[in-house]
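Q: Hi! First time doing this. I have a protein sequence and I read that you can turn it into a structure. Is that right? Here it is:
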Amino acid sequence: MSTTRQHPPGGLGREPDGTGSAVPSDRQWRALSLRDASGIVPMARDFARSALHDWGWLPASSADRRAAAEDVLLVVSELVTNACLHAEGPEELRIGCSSKSLRVEVVDGGAGQPAPRTPHRAGRPGGHGMFIVQRLCLDWGVSRTPDQPGKTVWAELAAPA
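A: Yes, that's right. Below is the predicted 3D structure, encoded as structure tokens:
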């Protein structure tokens, strides 16, 4: 797992033209605009749940597959909530699925840099979102486009076996 870091153009994440060397080309993508929407977090979870149904992650045939799908929904909730609270609101949710992994991307207009709160205190309210993302995901980070405001916060989760 990684900590939050800035990636150069062409590194991790899709570039505005849809390319990106670290993103498998066999990935199926879904995108949801969240600009000016209300009920953003439930809307994002419903969108993700629908994509998981279409890609065969749901309905889950085993406890492991159900846990993998619930991890995706939790990561979507945490990234979208983080954008609502700290980044002027999310603009778009993207979910990409390949045979080996699922990638969640939340685009926002904020300049901040998400990071797990350290030291992490489990009994303290708030501040757990990026810690949860870090614990559930294979990797996560932030992509920025030079000379443009905002960022894309992304997270990769393993596909269920």
